[in-house]
Amino acid sequence: HVYTYKQQAVDKNGQRKVITFNAFSDKLKTNHYLKVEVKLDRVQSYKEVSQQQVPSKVLQRID
Q1: How does DSSP classify residue 58?
Q2: Which residue of 10, 18, 35, 61 is 20 to 30 Å from 42, comparing CA positions?
Q3: How many CA atoms lie within 13 A of 49 on its CB side?
Q4: How far apart are CA 33 and CA 52, in angstroms?
Q5: How large is the greatest C-alpha to C-alpha distance in the chain, in angstroms?
Q6: For 17-56, what is each residue's pLDDT tens digit?
């Protein structure tokens, strides 16, 4: 299965941006944090991280 996600992302400087990416495995969990690597406006990779691993500038900007 291929799952397509459209998410609001926040970079390490606290800037918001909407990103779209595909997941080629199981569905992603809701209410979890992802670290996403983006190059040339394309998601290269993502991985689940804990809230403690999210920079404070980013946590402040997440709704």
Answers
A1: H
A2: 61
A3: 13
A4: 10
A5: 34
A6: 899 999 887 788 888 899 999 888 889 999 999 999 998 8
- Sequence-ordered alpha helix ranges (H) in 1-63: 56-61
Beta bridge partners of 35: 47
Q: How far apart are CA 22 and CA 12, in angstroms?
A: 22
φ, ψ dihedrals at 49, nearest 5°: -130, 165
Other C-beta atoms closer than 10 Å to the C-beta of 19 total 15
Cβ(27)–Cβ(3) below 8 Å: yes
Spatial distance between the Cα atoms of 30 and 57, rounded to a whole number of angstroms: 21
